[in-house]
Specification:
This protein has helices at 152-164, 175-185, 189-194, 215-222, 241-249, 263-266, 269-277, 296-308; strands spanning 2-3, 7-10, 19-23, 30-34, 39-44, 47-52, 56-57, 66-69, 73-76, 85-89, 94-100, 105-110, 113-118, 122-123, 142-147, 170-173, 199-200, 231-232, 253-254, 259-260, 284-288. It is an alpha/beta fold and 339 residues long. Strand 9 (73-76) and strand 10 (85-89) form a beta hairpin. Helix 4 (215-222) packs across helix 5 and helix 7 (269-277) runs parallel beside helix 8 (296-308). This is SH3 domain-containing protein.
Length: 339
């Protein structure tokens, strides 16, 4: 609402209560409640008090339901920078909005904690990111694994450990891999991984180099028996105009990587762990499900090594509120991965 004239903000819902502040004409206030006498409990700058509804008018400004942090941002107990910090929110964090103060600060909820954050660093869309980081817009490191596990036991061991230790891996199996697991074990690999709070993206059907195909040919290679989702990783990371045309045509975004362990080349557990552990904040690390990185002990060491450097790994999915028990990930990834 907006004030129609200069208006006193009072400690209670009547003129007998003390004055907290005087609001100039045109001040925007956030409404918390309405008393039976027509007075409103409102937020004005850092104050919460009561004002007569006679001098307040509804504004056409629509309060957004969700916003995204554009940088690391402090969540505070009040609507300016003098209030104590509740917690720090990473870049790209999604918050639920409940009110807006006249100072431009928003009352928001992040991971079950409610406070105030500056509107200067909040927008309706996630911050832009590089192709190598995909939808990971925060500081956590994402461990990703391409191709296909050697066995069902190897898959279950890795995703089971990840879920039990709050790790959210990103798997990029080929369509041939999915078909193989259905034939050999009678299971849906993608659904099995999602049920453990892990993310699954497309990696083509047969792992063909998309740059050797036309746009239409690349479309067929991405679809078919491949993972149906909104993010995909091109085989070999190879891209050209035709490949990009195919991704655009089927509405799939491209996610490559920022750290390549080259595990397929070294095939050495210690070296793979060392290279993955050297990741920086926000990195996407490339490994493969058929090599030594995709195992509980390797995951344990990588997570521990990163933690020793003050870095966290993407966490297992716990729903849109990002708290509680591990739950099944959606087939379509959100614009900002809730790591």
């Amino acid at each position: 609402m907006v004030t129609l004239d200069e208006l006193n903000l009072r400690m209670g819902s009547g003129v007998s209560f003390g004055i907290l502040a005087t609001m100039p004409k045109g001040s925007v206030v956030s409404v918390l409640s309405r008393a039976s006498n027509g007075w409103y409990q409102v937020i004005y700058k850092s104050y919460t008090g009561w004002a007569s509804g006679t001098y307040l008018k509804a504004t056409t400004q629509t309060l957004p339901t969700q916003l995204y942090t554009q940088d690391e941002l402090n969540l505070r107990t009040g609507s300016n920078a003098t209030f104590p910090i509740v917690t720090e929110m990473p870049r790209g964090a999604r918050v639920d909005v409940s009110a807006r103060a006249s100072s431009g600060w928003y009352k928001v909820t992040y991971r079950g904690r409610t406070g105030w954050a500056s509107g200067s660093y909040l927008k309706k869309t996630p911050p832009s990111t590089s192709q190598g980081k995909g939808p990971n817009r925060g500081p956590r490191v994402v461990l990703t694994f391409d191709d296909c596990p050697r066995t069902l036991a190897a898959l279950d061991s890795a995703i089971g450990y990840a879920a039990s230790n709050d790790m959210g891996l990103v798997l990029a199996p080929t369509g041939d891999c999915l078909s193989s697991f259905r034939s050999r074990y009678g299971v849906d690999l993608a659904a099995r991984a999602r049920a453990k709070g892990q993310w699954v993206i497309n990696h083509s059907v047969t792992h063909r180099d998309l740059t050797t195909l036309t746009c239409a040919g690349a479309e067929r290679e991405l679809l078919g028996t491949g993972v149906r989702t909104n993010w995909g990783r091109p085989p070999y990371g190879a891209l050209d105009t035709a490949a990009r045309c195919a991704y655009s045509s089927i509405g799939m975004k491209i996610w490559t990587w920022t750290v390549d362990t080259r595990d397929w080349q070294v095939q050495n557990k210690a070296i793979i762990i060392s290279r993955a552990s050297a990741a920086r904040a926000g990195d996407t690390v490339l490994m493969h499900m058929q090599w030594q990185g995709f195992a509980p002990d390797s995951l344990r060491q990588i997570k521990s090594n990163l933690a020793a450097r003050g870095l966290g790994v993407c966490r297992a999915y716990r729903g849109t509120n990002e708290i509680g028990a591990v739950v099944t990930t959606p087939r379509m990834l959100p614009d900002s991965l809730p790591c």
